[in-house]
Amino acid sequence: MRALQIAATGMSAQQMRVEVISNNLANMSTTGYNARRAEFADLMYQQATRPGTVTANDGTIVPAGVQLGLGVRPTAVSVTLAQGSLSATGGDLDLAIDGKGYFEVTLPSGASAYTRDGGFKRSANGDVVTSDGYPLVPGITIPNGANTIAINADGEVYAYFTNQIQPTQIGTITLAEFTNEKGLEAIGSNNFLETEASGPPAVSTPGVDGLGTLKQGYLEDSSVDAVREITELIKAQRGYEMNAKVITAADEMLSATTQVR
User: Fold this and answer.
1) φ and ψ at residue 128, rounded to 5 degrees
2) Which of 86, 218, 223, 256 has its CA 20 to 30 A from that of 70?
3) E strand or H helix at 246, and its extent?
4) Where are the transmembrane segments (predicted)?
């Protein structure tokens, strides 16, 4: 019976939905994390009677027809582009993007990655790096003897020294923007890679060309809404149970058919 196969695709879809929800809930405390949503589409249809077909009896046109669906399939796990709230940390190298944009960092392979996690650190050489040690692009090196670091909304980085009234500018942080942010490839550690779907990055100064501004001493929280995710989890669980009921019903119908004498 087709019902067995159709219900199986439904159970598989709801299982994938639960996996996406569980990943969202697991990343409730991940800096700069955007919630994901599983998306689905119906499978092809068997056209027992096509709509608009002329009947052989009297030549009238069938208004609806008989189209039998074959189930569901996953189409995408899309990112919900919503900025999380900004939490004050007080760290000199903690940066939050208030608006659109991504920080660019360099991976060990030499490729560029992009992130909204602004929890930067200072390496042994004084370079500004991510928690995984990936250097920020453009590179910024904090000189020895610098007491404090100040970063304004436009990304200009200043270092303050003892017995020096005026600060010294040591670099400028830029941001990257993509035509299709949902097309970025997630590689873990809050990093993304450019793809054909995302388009090339447009790099500019914070606050220019629609990019967000920087806030020093803040980090962006995860945008996961726990109440919404729990609600979606309940709906997915009930959907899984109903598809399982269909399999049970189809099995009982087949059992009744085999017992017919």
Assistant:
1) -85, 120
2) 256
3) helix 226-258
4) none
Tokens describing residue 24: 């969202």
H/E element, 250: helix 226-258
- C-alpha closest to that of 149 among 90, 102, 106: 90
- The pLDDT confidence band at residue 56, using thresholds 50, 70 and 90, is low
How far is 243 from 212, CA to CA, in rounded Å? 45
Contact predicate 86/44, CB 8 Å: no
For the record, the structure tokens of 99 come out as 């608006």
Residues of the chain with pLDDT > 90, as a percent, come to 77
226-258 residues labelled b (16+ CB within 10 A) or e (exposed): eeebeebbeebeebbeebeebbeebeeeeeeee
Q: Interior CA angle at 172 toward 169 and 178, to 5°?
A: 170
Predicted model pTM: 0.85
d(CA 8, CA 247): 8
Alpha-carbon gap, residue 252 to 4, rounded angstroms: 11
Q: Would residue 16 be called left, alpha or beta, if left means φ above 0 and alpha means ψ between -120 and 50 degrees?
A: alpha
Neighbour count for residue 83 (Cβ, 10 Å): 17
